[in-house]
Automatic annotation (TrEMBL):
Modified residues (N6-(pyridoxal phosphate)lysine): 198
Any Gene Ontology CC annotation: cytoplasm
Keywords: Pyridoxal phosphate
Listed InterPro entries: Cys/Met-Metab_PyrdxlP-dep_enz, Cys_met_metab_PP, PyrdxlP-dep_Trfase, PyrdxlP-dep_Trfase_major, PyrdxlP-dep_Trfase_small
GO biological process, any: transsulfuration
Designated name of the protein: Cystathionine gamma-synthase
Organism domain of life: Bacteria
Cofactor: pyridoxal 5'-phosphate
Pfam families according to UniProt: Cys_Met_Meta_PP
Family: Belongs to the trans-sulfuration enzymes family.
Matches recorded under PANTHER family: CYSTATHIONINE GAMMA-SYNTHASE, TRANS-SULFURATION ENZYME FAMILY MEMBER
GO molecular function annotation: carbon-sulfur lyase activity; pyridoxal phosphate binding
Length: 384
């Protein structure tokens, strides 16, 4: 049955707990499951391998992203760590240079230095940079779009033409737009990863991660094996929190985006602000591509202030918006990428992508937009 995303968000795979009829899918807080006889299983044996609540979440995520297999993990980083176990030393991966700091850290500190994988960081919004980085041993292209924090847009469809031609994987971190606004697998990607901690969970109360695959093929089997071997799986209660968060993803994304547009308008006219980075603005370099491949622009935005002293004033002055890491929840958060999320990234890369000491990133929540603007205005000492 082909259903609208709003219905899929609420009902997932339409399965329910047949023994009770519970409307809220039960939390199967059990590490292990009783065998009904020798060589007989209920389908569940041990929760590292599979758990009913996690399975309900995984099938929901597969439906939302238009994939055939999904795997849920304790964090977004655990998902990425599990995924990269499919690669071997000397495999080469092309990566967006404007990247989540933790992802950069696992690639460089663990996978490169300790396990011998190779990474080349390029501006994936520029197709030629990807083509030029390709080597004999290239096994995948890993992108974020929009990127964090500069909101650059990469053309998923065009990149997928290249990865298909070379028979390598296209992996998209879809944390910022979620399947509500963007479905990379429909555009040609092979793998989607998520930090479910962000928009999917949506309430700044749970850490989670996921991998969703276009096909249920050998790659899916391999990841299933890695998941049950490595672990770092999502706990039953946390799976339930994510299932609950996902039910309201659509209405949250709409409201957060509406708020983001209002704040962007205000920031653009603010004399203290130098530049605003948001893909929803028509003069943003990636606007047209974002519009063609996504049904929305999301609620993540960055802006640079003219005077660096304003950074401290704003971060310490906001009262409704919290100065905190993370993003995507109902509460608005403001982040200083240079010292927080991107502190692991070398200065030359930061300079190349434009992250500097005047840049702030805002994750817009579902509060009243006018209150958020007043909060920023007060913090900038524009009004008392
Ligand atoms: C937060 C984040 C991650 C890491 O997820 P955790 O749940 O914090 O481990 C990965 N990618 C992006 C784009 C993120 O924002």
């Amino acid at each position: 049955m082909k259903l609208d995303i709003f219905t899929n968000l609420v009902h997932g795979d339409l399965s329910f707990d047949e023994s009770t009829g519970a409307i809220s899918y039960p939390i199967y807080q059990s590490a292990t499951f009783k065998h009904i006889g020798l060589n007989q299983s209920t389908g569940f044996d041990y929760s590292r391998e599979s758990n009913p609540t996690r399975q309900k979440l995984e099938s929901t995520l597969a439906i939302l992203e238009g994939g055939k297999a999904a795997f849920a993990y304790s964090t977004g980083m655990a998902a990425i760590a599990n995924l990269f176990n499919v690669f071997s030393s000397n495999d080469h991966i092309i990566v967006s240079n404007d990247l989540y700091g933790g992802t950069y850290r696992i690639f460089e500190e663990l996978l490169c230095k300790q396990y011998g994988l190779q990474f080349t960081y390029v501006d994936t919004s520029n197709l030629n940079d990807i083509y030029n980085a390709y080597k004999e041993n290239t096994k995948a292209v890993f992108i974020e779009t929009p990127t964090n924090p500069m909101m650059k847009i990469s053309d998923i469809k065009e990149i997928s033409k290249f990865t298909k031609e070379k028979n390598i994987l296209l992996i998209v971190d879809n944390t910022f737009l979620t399947p509500y606004f963007q479905r990379p697998l429909d555009l040609g990607a092979d793998v989607v990863v998520h930090s479910g901690t962000k928009f999917l969970g949506g309430h700044n109360d749970v850490l989670a991660g996921a991998i969703i695959l276009k096909e249920n093929d050998e790659l899916a089997e391999r990841i299933k094996l890695i998941q049950k071997t490595v672990g770092a799986v999502l706990a039953p209660f946390d799976s339930w929190l994510l299932l609950r968060g996902i039910k309201t993803l659509g209405i949250r994304m709409e409201k957060q985006q509406e708020n983001a547009f209002k704040i962007v308008e205000w920031l653009k006219q603010n004399k203290n602000v130098e530049e605003v980075f948001y893909p929803g603005i028509p003069d943003h370099v990636g606007h047209d591509i974002c519009k063609s491949q996504s049904s929305g622009f999301g609620s993540m935005l960055s802006f640079s202030v003219k005077d660096v002293s304003l950074v401290k004033t704003i971060l310490e002055g906001v009262k409704i918006i919290s100065f905190a890491e993370s993003l995507g929840g109902v509460e608005s958060l403001i982040t200083y990428p240079m010292v927080q999320t991107h502190s692991a990234i070398p200065k030359d890369i930061l300079d190349a992508i434009g992250v500097n000491d005047k840049l702030l990133r805002l994750s817009v929540g579902i509060e009243c937009a006018e209150d958020l603007i007043k909060d920023l205005e007060r913090a900038m000492r524009l009004t008392i």
